[in-house]
Description:
3-stranded antiparallel beta sheet; 221 residues
Amino acid sequence: MGKKIGIAVGVIILVAALVVCLVPLKTVAYMVMVDYQDTETYYVDEPYEVSEPLEYRELDSFTTEAVKDVRSHAVMRGYDLPDEIVEWPDFALYIAVQNLDDVPGTFEVRYTLTTADKSAAERQQWLIERTLEEYAELDREYYEGSIELYLEPGEVRAAICPPGGIYIAPDRVPFSHEHEITPDTKTKTNYRQVEKQRTVTKQRPETRYKKATLLDYWLGR
């Protein structure tokens, strides 16, 4: 009988010990990694297209009044003339254009030619200012137009303005002239740095708390 009582007491003590050890009795802190959303700034090279004129140069410019042998003149300057040319005494303006770009294109040559009555021009040659009547007396004639030159990279061609030339009668004075070259354009891709933002997931440590049993506490868990 005493043995049974001893065993019962031992069991009770053991159960009591287990209850004490396993029931949460102490609050302890511990660290965990948690996800959170954040905004991140980043940069990208974004393409965009621009139009720019083709590169060119005006290689030569002369008139038949100034140059009698136009074909020899062109050869000396390093380019060829078309088969149909205008030579003195007819009047024409020659504009030689070279494409300096890496793509082909069309170059428009606009020209304006002006002549006047010879006797009136000689009478008025020293005038600095003219009245409307004096301008009318000059009886000016205007010629204008445009010529398109299609040029491969590096190619040179001459615009003859006007293509068939103009005959200057004895009662006229040679032409004054103006011209303008308008190059073709090309599309080019450039890049610019653009700032953008995006949402990313990151992690950070966070302190949390829990109830620990004496057994866990003793074991360091």
